[in-house]
Task: structure prediction
Amino acid sequence: MLLIALLLAADVVSLTQESQVKDLCAALREQPYDSELDPAQAAAAAKAAQAKREEAAGRWYRLEVPSKGFVFGRYQAQDKQLELDGDRPLHAVQNTLSLDLDGVDDVSFHATPGQVSAWSKEKKAGTLRLVVVWKPSGERCAGSAAAEAWRVAGKARSWELVGAQGTVAAADAEGEPVGVTPKEVKIEKVTVESDEGPRPDDGRRRLAGAQRELEKCAAAAQRAGSLLVTFSVQGGRVRDPQVIMDSLRDEKVAGCVARAVAGAEVGGSGHGTAAISLE
Result:
């Protein structure tokens, strides 16, 4: 894994200076036609410009976005995920670069409420940064050198939140949280259609017998998240469990959870639901 990481890092250019942004945008723009060149010279110039453009567009760039250059979005308490606000571009390199990245609306980081509070304080203090590895879409930049501001579109390969003590959270190219594996299973709530009213413990004890099997599911999961399971009750036991909402997006884990609760004695009759989180 270390070798793979080193190989991936080797092809990344750190984008830190305004001059680099200027050169990147110069390479991406269409070169004006020089009427003084003969056809052969013009063709050679166009070929050279195209090669330069393809080289610039084919590279991955590492960009550090300062605290004021990005905004957090919603916090999904149930899934313990903090989103980025995708309505605004990222601002970096002394505020000369605005970056529009595909899928920024889907980026989220695993975070407990305590971590969200700590990161918010770091962001306010200016010590929290967003580090993104990205590639240009190939379209020319908006803006100009005269205005000392450019806007570029692209796609990301990785996202990291970096604080004073180092990396605190990360997300992959799809915006999914990475580097967090569940340590426990928590049964949030279990309800059955025949219940006359809320249970004192939200029905959590109903699936106590399935806890050991559920923990095996958590051990196989690659990320934390939550699931909502529906089922029918026959003879007081769970029958035909179906995972209908899965923030883990992992079919193997969803299937494991469904098998773990099948046959569990929950009492009652009719249909039921179970909210389960892997933390």
Q: What stands out?
A: The first strand starts at residue 12 and ends at 14. Confidence is low (pLDDT under 50) at residues 1-9. The radius of gyration is 25 Å.
